[in-house]
Amino acid sequence: xASSASAAVPRAAPTKPRSTASTPLARRAMTGxxxxxxxxxxxxxxxxxxxxxxxxxxxxxxxxxxxxLAVGIGAELARRLSGSRLTAPVGGLAALVLYLLLHYAHxxxxxxxxxxxxxxxxxxxxxxxxxxxxxxxxAPVGVSPGIEVLTxxxxxxxxxxxxxxxVTWRRAALAGLPLLVLYxxxxxxxxxxxxxxxxxxxxxxxxxxxxxxxxxxxxRWGRSMRGNAARPATLSADTAPLAQVGRxxxxxxxxxxxxxxxxxPGLSAHTFGxxxxxxxxxxxxxxxxxxxxxxxxxRNLRQGQNTVVLTYTGKATYxxxxxxxxxxxxxxxxxxxxxxxxxxxxxxxxxxxxGLGLSVPSKRSAREIKIFDLEQQWLPLPYPTTxxxxxxxxxxxxxxxxxxxxxxxxxxxxxxRAVSLDVDFTPDLLRTAGPAxxxxxxxxxxxxxxxxxxxxxxxEITRRTSSGYDAALALQAWLRSPAFTYSLTLDPAVADxxxxxxxxxxxxxxxxxxxxxASAMAVMARTLGIPARVAVGFAAGTSDxxxxxxxxxHDLHAWPELYxxxxxxxxxxxxxxGPTSAPPPWTNPAPGSVVPSSSASANASPSASSSAxxxxxxxPPRDSLNDPAAxxxxxxxxxxxxxxxxxxxxxxxxxxxxxxxxxxxAVRRLRWRDARSPAEQARTAWVELQDTLVDHGYxxxxxxxxxxxxxxxxxxxRLGGPAAKAIGRLTTAVERTRYAPDTGAIGDLRGxxxxxxxxxxAGASRWGRARARLLPRSTRSVSARISERFADGLDGxxxxxxxxxxxxxxxx
Length: 812
Fold this sequence. Notes:
Elements: H1 2-8, H2 24-31, H3 35-48, H4 61-81, H5 87-104, H6 117-136, H7 145-168, H8 176-189, H9 196-221, H10 240-259, E1 285-288, H11 297-302, E2 308-312, E3 319-324, E4 326-327, E5 332-333, E6 337-340, E7 362-371, E8 385-389, E9 395-397, E10 404-406, E11 415-423, H12 427-431, H13 452-461, H14 468-479, E12 485-486, H15 500-509, E13 511-512, H16 514-527, E14 532-538, E15 542-543, E16 549-552, E17 556-564, E18 568-571, H17 608-611, H18 644-674, H19 678-695, H20 706-717, H21 722-739, H22 749-762, H23 766-774, H24 779-811
Parallel strand pairs: 12-13
Antiparallel strand pairs: 1-6, 2-7, 2-16, 3-14, 4-5, 7-11, 8-11, 9-10, 14-17, 15-16, 17-18
Helix pairs in contact: 3-4, 3-7, 3-8, 3-9, 4-5, 4-7, 5-6, 5-7, 6-7, 7-8, 9-10, 10-24, 13-16, 14-16, 15-16, 18-19, 19-21, 19-22, 20-21, 21-22
C-alpha cells in the first residue's frame, strides 16, 4: 500500500530558480509604496525654502518644485520598470535634464517638446551666464535666468541624492547630508542667514522622512496583533511607539540644532534670521551687500580706448551711479542697501530726496537714457531722480543713499526714461542751513587712526570762514587752485586709490585725478563736521548737433556731495581737470565767502582760534576727531565702548551658564511661597533638604525612614552642633505631619534647611561649593519633568491621530 500510494504521487518537475531581483515579491520589497518617494520629495522641497535669503525674489521656487517632482517621478518609474537599483538614479537624472531643457530652452526644441542640440546649447549658455552673475554679485542676488537655472538644477541634484539614499537604498538618515547643503549655502553667503521658520519647516520635513522610513520597515516585518480580531480590517502594524520615539528624538535634535550654534564661535544671531529677512524677499525688507565701483575707476580712465558708454537727451547733467557713504580708512565704499521689492521699485516712484526742502527752487525734467557698452549693477541716473520708466527688469533703490540696484542682470544694452528734479541751490540757502539731524551722524564717521595732517590742513584752509557752506567753498577753491595738478599718472611713492594713505600722499604731492580730489574734500569736510560722501558716475559728456549728450569711457568721474539741512545733498567739484567743466553755479565764490590763495600752507599748524571749532551748528562728534575729552585720549577708543556682537555673545554665554543656578533659586522660592500650612512646610523642607544633599553629591537612600536617614547623614558627613540639631528638628517635623497633618506650629524649618546647607558647604572643597552653587545637580529633575510633560504632549498628538485613523478605517 505504501509503495502504491507513493507511486500515485507525481514527482514535481525541477524548476529553474528565478532571480531574486526579478520576483514580484522582491521587486515590491525594493520599490515599496509611494509614501517614501513622496516623503523624499517633500523633504527636499521644504529644505529648499532655506535658500530664500539668498535671493531678492521668490521667482526661483516654483520651477524648483517642478524639478523636484520631475526627479521623483523619473526615479520612481525607473524603479518600477526595472529590478535594478542602478536604474533609479539614471532615470531621475534623465528626468531632470529633460525638465531643464523643456522649461528653459523650449523655444529651441522641436515642436516645443523634443530637445535638440540648439536647446542643449541654450541651456549651457544660461549656465555660463549664471556662473558669471554669481561671481559678480553678492547675496541676496536677483533671479536672472542663468541664476535660476543653476538653482533649479542644483536643488534637482539634491533631490536626486535624497531619493537615492532614502528610497532606493533605504537609508533615510544619509539623506540628511545632501539636505544639509540647502541649509549651509544660505548660512555661508546670505547676510541674514536662515530664518527660524524656514529651519523648522526643513527640520520637520526631514523628521517626516525618517518616520516614513520607519513605518515602511515595520510594515515589511508583518502585521502585529493590534486591533479587534473580529474586524480584521482594523489590523495593521503598530508603529505608534516607534513614532513616539521618533518625535521625541526629533524634537530634541531640533532643540539642540537651535541652541548649540548660539554658543559656538563663528555663528551669530543672523544665522537663524534674528536679524530680519524672510522667504524670497517678496514683500519684506532685505539687505544687499554690494561691490565698490570706485576700485575700477582709475583703470578705466587710463585705458586707451574711449568708447561710447551711453547717450541721453535733455539738459546736460552728471549721471550718478552710486554714492559711497562709508569711509573705512582703506577706501570709500557704499553701505549695504536696505531694499524691499514691494516698496522700493523705481518704476513706482522714489521718495523725496533726503533733506531737500519743499521751498528749494526745482524744475522737473525727463531724460531718455540709452546704455551701450556698460555692464554693472548700478543704474546711472541724475540726482535726485523721482521715477524711472520703461526699464527692463526690476530695479530697487535705497531711500537714504538713492543708490539704484538691479535685481536681475545688469545695465548692458538697456534703455529707460528718468524723471528727475533740476535743483537750483542758492548761496543764501546753503549759507543759512541749520544743523544736520542725528540721522546724518554716520556721514561724519572717520577712522580713529586718521592722519592728523588731514584735519589740520582742513582747519587751516577754513580758519577764516564762518559757515559750513563757506568752508566747503574754501576747500573746493583750494583744491582747484594752481597749486594742484590733474594727472592720471601718480608719484610712484604715493598710493593710488581713495584711502587715507592716498589722501595723505595726494596732499603732499598735490597731484592726482578725480578720485583723490573727491576723496580728500569729502574726508576734510567730515573733519569739519560737515556730512559728506563721494559720488561715482559720469560727467555730462559732449553734445552733438541733434541735442544728444554722448558719454564715453573717459567721462567716468567722482565728486563729493555735502549735506546741508533744507537743501539735502549738494554736489561740489574740486577736480580742476579731466572730463569736468566749470563747477556748479552755486559753488562759485560769492560775497561773504573767504577763498584761500594758492600759497596757503597745507601743513601749517592751526591757530588757537581755529582749533576751538568753527561751525557751532555742525560740530563733529567727539569720537570722530579723536577728542581726548571723549574718553579716548590720543586716538584710542573709550574703554566703555564695547563691540556689540562680541558683548552680546559673551552675555549670552554667561546667561546659559547661569541657567542652572537661576533655576535652582527660582524653584526654591516657588516651593516656599506655596507652602502655607505646617504640613506643606514640612514637605517642602524635606524636599529642599534632599535637593540640597543632591547638590553636594550626597546619595539619599529612599528606603530609609526620615529618622534613620537623618542619622546616617549626620554620621557620614560628621555634622554636629546646630546642623545636627536642625536635621533632628526636620525629621521630627516630617514624622509628625505625616501621621498628624493637623499638627500645630513646627518651627522655622526653612532656617533649619539653611543651617544644613551651610554646614555641607563648610565641609566641602572649594570646587564642591562652586559646583553646588553654580551647577546644582538637583536641576536635572526639573529638566526631566519639563521633558516628560513635552513628551506627554507629543503622546497626546499620537493618541489624537490614532483616533482619527480608527474613525477613517471604520468609515471605509
